Amino acid sequence: MHHLDVRDLEASYAGNPVLRGVTLSADKGEVVSLIGPSGSGKSTLLRVLIGLTPPTAGAVCIGGTAVDYADKRSLRALRSRMSIVFQQFNLFQNMTALANVAIAPVKVHGVPKREAEERAMALLEKVGLGHKGDSYPDQLSGGQQQRVAIARALAVEPEILLLDEVTSALDPERVGEVLDTVRALAGDGITMLLVSHEMAFVREISTRVVMMDAGQVVETGTSAEIFTAAKMERTRAFVGAVIRHAA
Ligand SMILES: Nc1ncnc2c1ncn2[C@@H]1O[C@H](COP(=O)(O)OP(=O)(O)OP(=O)(O)O)[C@@H](O)[C@H]1O
Domain ABC transporter, which positions (predicted)? Predict the structure, then answer.
């Protein structure tokens, strides 16, 4: 049994199919990266998994338990097992970094405030921002805000972390610090599903890479297989193009 099992998942926007039968899996502690051209459905897949966009068909199991996206209780249970970090960090502007990290455990999960704040401080330290707990988002750089957002996503102690292009909105000189944070989390036992255009990073960090195109999985392989020995021409063309672009 895999930690995360996605089977024949389908989703549409206004009747247009965007995910057309996606099947993939992740074992505990794996870093699985989704790559593929713009519009291939990578972000939509993450949105469906976390329950923001309803699937129209297919199944998602976490630790062998099926998620029922139409059921509020199942969704609530899902949100304590899985969390997501977006490209735009979306912090609460009127709250300190510490309060941003502590709020979900208090409001959603009923953790006592003191305990949540102690844990939030430990998480801020983990992302290198132990000294910024009292700062408001507008007093932080984009990279720092994104690291607060990662700490916030970790605050519910998820088993699975979804990362949707978490460096795309950052100034180039701020990308490295966020990638360092993600790198430090990988291998911590948390299962990660990562959408990123940072191909060197994807290549380095992923245990497995899933190539998507037009709402379907084209190919899945280890990082080495996908980047140096892809079986499908579509994958070779995509990977070759992005590597040439980066060079
Ligand atoms: N809110 C929405 N309403 C309607 N169509 C949408 C919406 N979000 C995405 N789409 C469409 O769904 C398809 C898949 O988009 P998605 O953002 O999942 O792709 P992606 O692979 O993540 O692309 P990118 O790398 O550019 O972020 C695209 O054709 C897109 O135009």
Answer: 4-239
Decide whether any atom of ligand 1 lies within 6 Å of the 53 Cβ: no
Ligand 1, atom 28, lies closest to the CA of 39
| Residue nearest (by alpha carbon) to ligand 1 atom 12 | 18
Instruction: Establish whether residue 44 lines the binding site of ligand 1, counting it when its CB lies within 6 angstroms of any ligand atom.
Output: yes
Q: Parallel, antiparallel, or unpaired for β 82-85 and 160-164?
A: parallel
Any idea what the Cα angle at residue 12 is, between residues 36 and 87, rounded to 5°? 50
Question: What SS3 state is found at 192?
Answer: strand
**What pLDDT, in 10s, does the model give residues 61-104?**
999 999 999 999 999 899 889 999 998 888 999 999 999 999 98
- Opening angle at CA 244, ends 182 and 194, nearest 5: 25
| Predicted interface score ipTM higher than 0.90 | yes
Tell me if 47 CB under 6 Å of ligand 1: no
Kindly report the CATH number that applies to the domain delimited by 4-87+162-246: 3.40.50.300
> What is the DSSP secondary structure assignment for residue 67, as one 8-state letter?
P
Which residue type is seen at 241?
A
pLDDT by residue (tens digit) across 211-234? 999 999 999 999 999 999 899 999
